[in-house]
């Protein structure tokens, strides 16, 4: 029978494998889509054996769901953790737009914004993976609407739509044309939505 120390060691190794594989899966999703993720490709990219990956996750769908969860973790760590240092409303929205732009320019994900990539891929689809993608996108929109309300927007849902549209267009054009000026233009347009608010 395994000792507590041995069980803890196995658990720690399993957690490390899970995080490593999930992170690589999230990276692949931004360039090739969640549907392109395979156990073989992940094994090659991470150095973890196929059997080791399947021992931790069980199946490909579990890997895809873990990729979304890891992307959420990365997003919270690299964007939201810094954004919440700003005051609610317009200051926080400006910080969000600035930090989100910097996060894309820094190449945190290989293929740009994870939320944008997976939202396009999973539109009108059902199932556990699609549900997680929708939750991620809904969290993004809820954040925008909450801060727009605090900034005095007369119609937070419409203003959130505008900011979301500008930022997604900037991300898509930057990835397609490999031109950072597209993202800078989107940033300026999104900030323009904030500037005209009562609390802006």
From TrEMBL:
PROSITE patterns: HTH_TETR_2. SUPFAM superfamilies: Homeodomain-like (SSF46689), Tetracyclin repressor-like, C-terminal domain (SSF48498). GO terms for molecular function: DNA binding. The keyword Disulfide bond does not apply. Residues 15-75 form the HTH tetR-type domain. It comes from the Bacteria. Residues 38-57 bind DNA. Keywords: DNA-binding, Transcription, Transcription regulation. This is TetR family transcriptional regulator. It comes from Mycolicibacterium llatzerense. The lineage of its organism: Bacteria, Bacillati, Actinomycetota, Actinomycetes, Mycobacteriales.
């Amino acid at each position: 029978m395994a000792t507590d120390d041995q069980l803890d060691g196995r658990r720690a190794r399993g957690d490390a494998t899970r995080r490593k594989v999930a992170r690589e899966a999230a990276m692949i999703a931004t360039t090739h889509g969640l549907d392109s993720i395979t156990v073989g490709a992940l094994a090659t990219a991470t150095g973890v054996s196929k059997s080791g990956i399947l021992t931790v996750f069980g199946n490909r769908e579990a890997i895809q769901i873990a990729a979304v969860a890891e992307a959420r973790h990365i997003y919270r760590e690299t964007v939201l953790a810094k954004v919440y240092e700003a005051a609610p409303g317009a200051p926080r929205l400006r910080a969000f737009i600035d930090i989100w732009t910097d996060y894309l320019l820094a190449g945190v994900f290989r293929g740009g914004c994870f939320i944008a990539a997976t939202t396009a891929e999973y539109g009108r689809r059902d199932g556990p993976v699609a549900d997680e993608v929708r939750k991620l996108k809904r969290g993004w929109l809820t954040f925008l609407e909450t801060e727009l309300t605090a900034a005095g927007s007369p119609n937070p849902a419409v203003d959130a739509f505008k900011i979301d549209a500008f930022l997604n267009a900037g991300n898509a054009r930057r990835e397609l044309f490999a031109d950072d000026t597209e993202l800078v233009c989107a940033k300026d347009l999104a900030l323009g939505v904030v500037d005209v608010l009562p609390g802006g």
